[in-house]
Amino acid sequence: MVLLGAILLVLCLVLGAGMYFSNTDPVSAEAFGVSLSNVSVGGIFLFGLAVGALAVLALGMMTGGAARKRRKQSALKREVRSARGEQESLTERNARLEAELERERSAALPHTGETLRDDQGRARH
Question: Which run of H or E residues covers position 24?
Answer without folding.
Answer: none
